[in-house]
Predict the structure.
Amino acid sequence: MLKPQLNPARSLISLDGIWDFKVDFNDEGFNQNWAGSTLDTDLDVAVPSSYNELFTQREIREHVGWVWYQRELVVPKGFAGQRYFVRVAAATHEGKLFINGKELVSHVGGYMPFEAELTNVVAPGEVALLTIAVSNVLTNETIPPGEVQVLQTGRKEQYYYHDFFNYAGLARSVELYSTPMNAISDITVVTTVKGSTGVVSYEVVSAGEVSVRLLDAKGNEVASAQGSKGDLEVADAKLWGPGHPYLYQLVATSGEDQYNLNVGIRTIEVSATQILLNGKPIYLTGFGMHEDHLVKGKGHDNAFLVNDFELLKWVGANSFRTSHYPYAEEVMDYADKHGILVIDETAAVGMNLALTSGIFGTPPKTTFSPETINGNSQAALASQIRELIARDKNHPSVIAWSITNEPASEEEGADTYFEPLFKLARELDPSRPVTYVNVMMAPFSKCKLAQFADFICLNRYYGWYVNHNDLDSAILGYRAELKGWVETFGKPLVITEYGADTLPGAHSIHALPWSEEYQVNFLKASHQVHDEFESVAGEHVWNFADFQTKPGIFRVLGNKKGVFTRDRQPKAAAYELRDRWTKLGNQKPKR
Ligand code: GCB
């Protein structure tokens, strides 16, 4: 799905701003046709933003079920003779869009765009009532999974198995856009390099004749072609990568329509021990991140985006993982522009019911079964993989697809559930590695998924969840385990999580856990082990910044493993990382 854009052939109007808002506490919005007339409410909501932190009422923050967003929309007279659409960049986790009370589209999956065509619904020059109902409910068949429990008090509570707050609402932009009647509906670009020549293989989907031009960063044409499919050759191509994020622009035209797409020429491959960018090993430095901020929750914000990337650069990071769901399209565009590599992850997080259900003497649940994570869940994840690859396939920054974070990959049924999904991702995009993120409870001797991955991502907490307050033992355990992975699979390993909760401002002469000193020492010990293994192809600290979670006895108003605080101030660990990473120059330290 192409992101809407403003160009000489297309118009784009933002519908972001203040919308009317009503919480459907009694689940009556559909029966009472709330979308049919002006919402009876005095609440306002900001779009984009998660709604949870905006209001003082706790029952809104913790509401389980539908909420309703509404505003007026005007189709400009100038749209006559064109096609036009409302596009919602994300409705977490399910959205239904109505115009004047009529449902036009429904979409499940909280981090992917969907749209409704208005061409024959609202005439140019007319005003219409736009309503979007959004549900935050997670079940055993949604991605991510969850379970709604009704407490003794009668209150509904959303239970889920992942460690970040279930922020919901319209957290990304809503737009009205137009295209000519015969529009370009899709473009796919794959790049390869032959000697000093860059090859841009393109395919444009459109009913009409297609022509394409490739422009360099100054706007000079470097190649052109006719036809919906072909190769564009660029002599002495400037390759894309961290530190040199050179972008060409593909201008596709078809009939009246035009679409401009940024293209970074680069290759990505995997050897037995390394990740190769443009044929050369690259050592990934960076973080698992979250879309998470004060007040806005997961709401996208360009000021925060710019600042987060400034901090990434300051600390010497060249990459991040979109833990644990696809991020806003603006983030992906910005990563292209700034040469930051991205492991692009689906929202399949928390697929490990034993991990969270068996803690206090209750019997652990089986993760993969008809009653728990089942075939319908698998179909839901398959459609999310299709949507993710359709949305993000043209970003040079995306170096791999991560199918899932920390599933119970040692359990019966994990391979049957995930093998077809690895296959699907490879079929949809043969140009990128496919990976998944392994959990500590599924070591190399037990994990059923590592065989399917091009490189293996490991989340490891030696020195925190194990060997707590004992970094010497942590080093021994970590080293022994990594050795096992290298010997068993012979694939590159990316450490996608390692980290220690740290209260900013807490200090300890004995460097005890939770102090800034312990976080620094924890990182140093981990790095010592990473540097011993040629196969460790990258290190992503958990987490870039502190973030909100559901309340829990392991959490102090959220997860405090951030290297930056939630308001983006550095803990001591940030300076430690900056010192190490800025010296590495994207290469693994010499052994
Ligand atoms: C993990 C999860 C991540 C958690 C983290 C932690 O393994 O992937 O979502 O937040 O551990 O801090 O416990």
About this structure: The CA atoms of residues 136 and 166 lie 8 Å apart. The pocket of GCB is lined by residues 163, 324, 405-406, 459, 497, 542, 559, 561 (CB under 6 Å).
